[in-house]
Specification:
- The protein has 103 residues and is α+β, with helices and mostly antiparallel strands.
- It has one domain: GIY-YIG endonuclease (3-Layer(aba) Sandwich).
- Helix content is 41%, strand content 20%.
- It has a three-stranded antiparallel β-sheet with strand order 2-1-3, sandwiched between helices.
- A hairpin with a 6-residue loop joins strand 1 and strand 2.
- The longest helix has 13 residues, at 58-70.
- It is globular and about 35 Å long.
Length: 103
């Protein structure tokens, strides 16, 4: 079964946010960290994976991404802080492979 992720990356705690969808959250977080794709996240140093959700269906993941993009900033911050109160970079937590990104 395929897995899809809606994720939020941030420049820092309470900093600039970016919401995206991917089929590999660790690869995509790495690409943001290394600024492998030129654009918004590279320009504004939005490199810290602070939140993600897992979906089995790409259509539901895309719907959720669109909903989150419409949310007020304060709602997004509350969502992040519910899962990750310290705004830790979750990429660092999952990157060694000993833990899986289950969302």
């Amino acid at each position: 079964m395929n897995k899809y992720y809606v994720y939020i990356v941030a420049s820092k705690r309470n900093g600039t946010l970016y919401i995206g969808v991917t089929n590999d959250v660790m690869r995509r977080a790495y690409e943001h960290r290394e600024k492998m794709v030129q654009g918004f996240t590279a320009q504004y140093n939005v490199t810290r994976l602070v939140y993600f959700e897992k979906y089995d269906d790409i259509e539901n993941a895309i719907k959720r991404e669109k909903i989150l993009k419409e949310w007020r900033r304060s709602w997004k911050i509350r969502l992040i802080e519910k899962m990750n109160p310290e705004w830790n970079d979750l990429y660092l937590f999952y990157q060694d492979g000993s833990r899986t990104a289950t969302g």
